[in-house]
């Protein structure tokens, strides 16, 4: 077991070292140049996101789609990541976080554009899409789309749920001495109630919570 742990530790250090930094930041900069600096049109994007368009197709509104996308981006990982970056690299690390975030707007824009371009409509009239559809219909790599879907489903149990639920349970236990089992069960029930309602329910809840999440994130991150 110890050998397996060392293997994954070394693998993690390799993947999340310079290769990942070069790949991520290089992609951000490349897309920024190719797309002619979409960051300059951020206010236009925000205006279109909150605009009501009765003739638009899709299961959710523009704002609901934006809120859902932000909900998957804003979270405990941002606060923990900023705190870890400052602890390891000093206050100057915040500058690099900002620069990466600004250039990352181009990557996020490209991701959203591909999701819309290659989405499909089911027989029941619902829209479905995502990177797996872009891989299959855009590049013609169905095998890679299947692998992406499998790996994403496996990862969702760890980075998608466990880390966040553990952070909430730990905070509630250390601050209010609430049992992690109670917190975990409560979070599970709330999550299930939202997810069972489908994408419309998810978008509706995200639309109510994301503005408060953003303000809380900003104030919490500023304390570091």
Overview in brief:
The protein is mostly helical and 224 residues long. It has helices at 2-15, 18-34, 42-50, 62-71, 76-89, 93-117, 131-139, 142-156, 158-176, 180-196, 198-222; strands at residues 120-121, 127-128.
Terminal CA distance reads 36 Å
Unreliable parts: none
Largest sheet: 2 strands, antiparallel
Look at the helices and sheets and give the structural class: mainly alpha
Question: Approximately how much beta-strand content do the residues carry?
Answer: under 5%
Describe the structure.
- The chain has 224 residues and is mainly alpha-helical.
- It contains 11 helices and 2 strands.
- Helix 7 packs antiparallel against helix 8 (142-156).
Which terms would index this structure?
single chain; 224 residues; mainly alpha; two-stranded antiparallel ribbon; 11 helices; 2 strands
Topology:
Layout: H1 2-15, H2 18-34, H3 42-50, H4 62-71, H5 76-89, H6 93-117, E1 120-121, E2 127-128, H7 131-139, H8 142-156, H9 158-176, H10 180-196, H11 198-222
Antiparallel strand pairs: 1-2
């Amino acid at each position: 077991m110890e050998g397996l742990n060392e293997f994954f530790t070394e693998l993690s250090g390799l993947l999340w070292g310079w290769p990942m930094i070069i790949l991520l930041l290089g992609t951000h900069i490349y897309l920024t140049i190719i797309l002619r600096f979409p960051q300059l049109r951020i206010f236009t994007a925000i205006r279109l996101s909150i605009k009501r368009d009765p003739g638009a197709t899709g299961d959710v509104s523009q704002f609901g789609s934006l809120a859902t996308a932000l909900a998957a981006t804003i979270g405990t990982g941002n606060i923990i990541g900023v705190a870890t970056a400052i602890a390891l690299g000093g206050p100057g690390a915040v500058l690099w976080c900002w620069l990466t975030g600004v250039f990352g707007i181009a990557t996020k824009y490209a991701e959203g554009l591909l999701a819309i371009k290659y989405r499909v409509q089911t027989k029941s009239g619902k829209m479905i899409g995502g990177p797996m559809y872009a891989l299959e219909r855009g590049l013609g790599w169905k095998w890679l789309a299947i692998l992406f879907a499998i790996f994403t489903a496996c990862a969702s149990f760890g980075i998608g749920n466990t880390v966040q639920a553990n952070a909430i349970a730990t905070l509630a236990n250390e601050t209010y001495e609430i049992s992690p089992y109670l917190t975990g069960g409560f979070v599970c029930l709330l999550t299930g109630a939202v997810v069972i309602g489908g994408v419309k329910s998810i978008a509706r809840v995200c639309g109510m919570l994301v503005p408060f999440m953003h303000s809380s994130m900003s104030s919490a991150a500023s304390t570091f």
